[in-house]
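User: Structure tokens for this complex, please. No commentary.
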Amino acid sequence: MSFSPRKTALTPGSGAPKPRSKGTPDNPLAAELTRSLGPRKVLSNPSERRNYRYDAIQFGATPLAVVLPENTADVVTAVRAARAAGVPVVGRGAASGLSGGAAPALPGLVLSFTRMTRLEVFPQRREARAQAGVVTLSVTEAARPHGLIYPPDPASFRTSTIGGNLGENAGGPLCFKYGVTGDYVKGLQFVDADGDVYELTRDAYDLAGLLIGSEGTLGLITEATLRLTPPPKYTRTLLASFAEVGECAEAVSRAIATGAVPAKLEFMDAACTNAVEDYLALGLPRDAGAVLLVDTDGDDLETVEEERALVEAACREAGGTVRRAATDAEAAALWQARRSVSPALGRIRPQRMNEDIVVPRSALPEVVREIRALGDASGLPVVQFGHIGDGNLHPNILFDPRRESSEAVHDLAHRIALVAIRHGGVLSGEHGIGTMKRPFMREAVDPVTLAALWDVKRALDPAGRLNPGKILPDEDVEAHAHP
Amino acid sequence: MSFSPRKTALTPGSGAPKPRSKGTPDNPLAAELTRSLGPRKVLSNPSERRNYRYDAIQFGATPLAVVLPENTADVVTAVRAARAAGVPVVGRGAASGLSGGAAPALPGLVLSFTRMTRLEVFPQRREARAQAGVVTLSVTEAARPHGLIYPPDPASFRTSTIGGNLGENAGGPLCFKYGVTGDYVKGLQFVDADGDVYELTRDAYDLAGLLIGSEGTLGLITEATLRLTPPPKYTRTLLASFAEVGECAEAVSRAIATGAVPAKLEFMDAACTNAVEDYLALGLPRDAGAVLLVDTDGDDLETVEEERALVEAACREAGGTVRRAATDAEAAALWQARRSVSPALGRIRPQRMNEDIVVPRSALPEVVREIRALGDASGLPVVQFGHIGDGNLHPNILFDPRRESSEAVHDLAHRIALVAIRHGGVLSGEHGIGTMKRPFMREAVDPVTLAALWDVKRALDPAGRLNPGKILPDEDVEAHAHP
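Assistant:
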């Protein structure tokens, strides 16, 4: 065992490369990695490396070298080379994340797990073992012939990877009924900052649970054992539209109070609905203040239809208009609307700041109205959508960096975060904290707890080499800047 | 924030009280606590204190003082007094635990949470907020009028407390389908070794998850927010008997392969069945090598009965004889048999060593046979039962300390643990590690992971004051004793 608090820690933020060693004039880290792993697994060309500095939302520092590991041994080799060079290590999968978690805060080594795609299904145990680079949807595709699925369904599940999903503890529409990524992890393998390899199950001192959602700041997850479940036999879909969001939230509360447990409960505000309609022309209700999309599912058709009827009645009682999907094709079209929110918003402004707040469901109408008012006052386009069953809302600020100042965007994002906190909410439901929401952590987490999180970080990564600059705000520097 | 690796750590095991201060000749800690909390909340009389040295399976050291806190502020006061006195702190609920987790390894302060019984149900949010001393069953009793239940059902749920259940991450028969205690915890409050109070939800850096199952070694859980669910509308029960355990395990595997997800799958060997039959005379099949008890449940009666039929067919195909519970009363009687295993065993020998291994289900027949053979060779009575759906087996060694040597019992327990490890299993499914299985941790967890667990322990409890001597084997001393 080599990481321990006794080791000398690097000064936080001192992740710059050491002076170049002789004989490797350009990029000693890349040269060393190429020597030990072979050229096929290392990207050292600047134009290649620049592709690994961003995720789906944020730009970061261009890495000094990128390794495409094919197995855990490659990860160990690369991590040890980074340690020897004194540079930080950042892991990434498909980089479809929405919090900047995979965008390096400092130049260093990036490990891109996209070649680690080994996937085995064990139907008798209802488990799959997946390397970090396995695409999320592939797990269900491999399990389905055995009558099983892997439920977590982040919107990006056709491209995102299991490693990234675990790193961010990703959610998705199904998580209202079926739980988030971490609920489906039975064990995992990870590599620490020194290149030591750990194989964990979910036992006493749940280190695996600690790694899940830690965005690569405590270790690099290389493989995971995932729990599979039989899919529901039947699914029924409806769309309800409301004059305003308060009615929509009221409908959801009434529906849940009847005992119905819909599989999905998705909300879009008028700005979001219109953006999708401009993009796809699906016939969505453009003048509705709020649109609600609902799936009920289960193994008994009568119960599934009864649950849909309960939701439908709750929507009408709250003042909504309901449209049932009569066919699977119609249901698929309605869900395509929800899945197309991201590309639809990209047509309005080239960039967006995507928040991921979770508030008590009872506070939702007020929170949505306050955020709407903040957006209107700022002059920036703001759209809102999310998993309303959990109170998980995604206010998106759309902007063009050539037209709008990043200070104005950041200021508005901060005000939105404060609305969530004031209503008893938290900053991240499913996207992670990353760099995006890191500055708001001081307002979201009390100083005692924050210090405990730092203690845990130091226990597992004493030199601060793993994905520095994510989740936890710096201890000393910012403590004075934000008294 | 006051705990940090920079603090001076006590030498492990140095938990003896400081020299007596003047004016409190007998017991300075008890005197100080009585002064600060009032006499009603402190037990200092030796005969009272002796009642707090054991749990349901293990004797420990008599505490120097026992505090019965009524709220979190009392816990803070007591923990700070223990810190000032330089003695360890051990929390306990109903002390129905089966691993020695609540039995103090050293004399110190015991906090008995039985007076912290505040319980609130929030039906709209499907949540309950419970203080640590709330009895597990009370949560469901309070939630049921709102159409909700709290699923985790350890056998002791009529007496065990929420704090104890969280500390040990307790399971129960329902956990095959519904998950363990930790799966129902949305947040918790805990007090650390310095008396600082933390309020956690299940966010990035899942400290709450780390506390769950840590047996009070990282912090004292004072309150928790629990997730409630609607109960299934229908339940159906069957009992199957088999000539030997291999057939029983085969039946379970076949049943699961059909896609059936029984709510409970409980196994008892012949020795266990006969012990219960001697005790209750319920008409259980005394000559069966293995008995299987199964519940199927759900909201659709047809599906529930179809699942029972699938399990029944699987049992018959594997060579079993099946008896359906025709009425709720008959089902209740069958489950009473399972719940009465503990008192039934107490009639055979006054004490028992209860293991809690989990092995791959495919290995169960071989594991049960090897343990049977070890028991027969030892001459000690050994019975086996458990949650066969998860491969969670409870081999129990029954003994009378006046007749049987504790070395022989411990040696047999160790051999049984090694059988589990050799077949790819783990030492604890739901009872925790405690002191009971602590000596086997070196064989169950690799040194790299064990060192990481110690790093986490030191990060959260640098002075080693919280429930010392539990879960983690000592680092240096035993490293040499067991090379």
